[in-house]
């Protein structure tokens, strides 16, 4: 079973979120391994309102297109332009330089601990 | 659904492969990064397990005449130790499968089909064999197929296999041309080596009896590693063949498509004859002859994306609209991906003839947005020394 950073929380749709304010959101290493090489990111715009559990963008790999879900509700305050320009960052550092966006959190969806997420990811 | 496992399945698992169902088989999609595997094949070499491909042996005094009747090509004219790309069509000219046929020895041919079509092809061949002095046998289960592809493939092959005039079939590796084959030795075992592939690079496909498949796979990996060889999965195979403009059955080819629609009319030998000079009424001939004379309803073209988003199979090709919205549909994408070699999206699509000219600006409806594409000649990629 894979190890996931214990300081993060996770959605069942394979996004992670940290506990900073604003909070940073990304996709997990488990999601990235299933996707393959990421080639395109469609992210919400700064100022957009997102709702937990709803589709807020797309993550496209060489072979497939997947929807991105927001793990929390709130307002997007920053998107990772470096990852948009070089989506391979999401593969190489999904928990670091490959983060997706930052959000002022007003509400949370269902979030899992690292241990719970590891079980979910199987 | 139960899937068949390759004789190399345990090797793939040990290498950490991401497996996928393909044509009823459980095969490696990728081992690490599909882009890295793609680049390795373009720059050094890749090792592919193709054991899912169907294999049929055709033997007997009328083997050549039978293949002339059953397939669109002129296989009786195929010289020994040569291979040919051909197709098997239905009566209406629709493509049942695209194939490679090897002529191994007098009265001995070997035919390779796509995994998903292996049963269809075998059944059609058995039906069409009625009245011919020929034996048609499915030999898929006894053989593994391993491909070494890339600019370093020949060096690697030479380290693993040895030449033996006793089994070579009269050719030396030095003289082995594209679509030619020879017998070689792997230790004491004999294998069939063909200079064929599906990547747009130089390379070889090697048929080996199942008991020797694992040792041969390991020998290629070990010999190839210093040359930059990596194991490569179906994902890289698909992006490589797309860059090389090669059709994939189920995408560019299907039963509603004739070889002419796919731009492959040259492989249909309408003029092939029996020994006495009379025309061969091969299966699908009448429909294909009519199709050759009629104006095509659609044309297979290459599309280069000028934006960043790749088109995918099934997406609509549309007229570009001034406001960036998708306009009227003029075609359908059959294959599409970001091209790792070229750095922009590439796609193949069937479009109406009016918009098929090189340089025509079109768009693809990518989930509601019109992404710009332009018609370009195929292939997208051609290796420097080809």
Automatic annotation (TrEMBL), chain A:
Q: Could you tell me the keywords of this UniProt record?
A: Lipoyl
For the modification N6-lipoyllysine, the affected residues are 63
- Check the record and name the SUPFAM superfamilies matching this protein: Single hybrid motif
The protein's matches in Gene3D superfamilies, at most eight in alphabetical order, are given as: 2.40.50.100
Q: Which domain of life is it from?
A: Bacteria
Record text on cofactor binding: Binds 1 lipoyl cofactor covalently.
Keyword Lyase in the entry? The reply is: no
Question: What is stated as this protein's family in its record?
Answer: Belongs to the GcvH family.
Name of this chain's protein: Glycine cleavage system H protein
């Amino acid at each position: 079973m894979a190890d996931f950073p214990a300081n993060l929380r996770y959605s069942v749709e394979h996004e992670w979120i940290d506990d900073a304010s604003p909070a940073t959101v990304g996709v997990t290493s488990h999601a990235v391994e299933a996707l393959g090489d990421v080639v395109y990111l469609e992210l919400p715009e700064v100022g957009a309102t997102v709702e937990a559990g709803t589709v807020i963008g797309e993550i496209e790999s060489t072979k497939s297109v997947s929807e991105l879900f927001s793990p929390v509700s709130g307002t997007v305050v920053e998107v990772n332009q470096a990852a948009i320009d070089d989506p391979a960052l999401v593969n190489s550092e999904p928990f670091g330089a490959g983060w997706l966006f930052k959000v002022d959190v007003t509400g949370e969806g269902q979030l899992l601990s690292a241990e719970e997420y590891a079980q979910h990811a199987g | 659904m139960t899937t068949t496992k390759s004789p190399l399945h345990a090797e793939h698992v040990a290498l950490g492969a991401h497996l996928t169902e393909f044509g009823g088989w459980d095969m490696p999609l990728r081992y690490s990064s599909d882009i890295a595997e793609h680049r390795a094949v373009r720059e050094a070499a890749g090792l592919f397990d193709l054991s899912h491909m169907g294999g049929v042996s055709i033997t007997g005094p009328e083997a050549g005449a039978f293949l002339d009747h059953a397939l669109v090509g002129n296989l009786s004219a195929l010289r020994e130790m040569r291979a040919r790309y051909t197709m098997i069509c239905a009566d209406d000219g629709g493509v049942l499968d695209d194939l490679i046929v090897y002529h191994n020895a007098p009265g001995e041919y070997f035919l390779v089909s796509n995994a998903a079509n292996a049963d269809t092809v075998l059944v059609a061949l058995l039906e069409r064999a009625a009245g011919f002095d020929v034996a048609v046998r499915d030999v898929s289960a006894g053989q593994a197929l391993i491909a070494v592809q890339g600019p370093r493939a020949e060096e690697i092959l030479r380290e693993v296999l040895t030449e033996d005039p006793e089994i070579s079939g009269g050719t030396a590796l030095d003289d082995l041309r594209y679509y030619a084959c020879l017998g070689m030795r792997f230790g004491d075992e004999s294998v069939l080596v063909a200079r064929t592939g599906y990547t747009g690079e130089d390379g070889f496909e090697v048929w080996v009896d199942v008991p020797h498949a694992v040792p041969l796979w390991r020998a290629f990996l070990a010999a190839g590693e210093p040359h930059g060889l990596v194991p490569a999965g179906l994902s890289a195979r698909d992006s490589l063949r797309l860059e090389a403009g090669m059709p994939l059955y189920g995408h560019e080819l299907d039963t509603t498509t004739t070889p002419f629609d796919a731009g492959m009319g040259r492989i249909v030998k309408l003029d092939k004859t029996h020994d006495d000079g009379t025309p061969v009424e091969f299966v699908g001939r009448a429909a294909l002859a009519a199709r050759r004379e009629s104006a095509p309803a659609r044309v297979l073209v290459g599309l280069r994306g000028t934006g960043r988003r790749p088109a995918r199979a099934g997406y609509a090709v549309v007229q570009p609209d001034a406001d960036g919205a998708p306009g009227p549909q003029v075609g359908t994408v059959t294959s599409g991906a970001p091209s790792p070699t070229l750095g922009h999206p590439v796609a193949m699509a069937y479009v109406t003839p009016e918009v098929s000219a090189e340089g025509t600006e079109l768009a693809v409806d990518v989930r509601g947005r019109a992404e710009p594409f332009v018609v370009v000649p195929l292939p997208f990629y051609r290796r420097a020394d080809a």
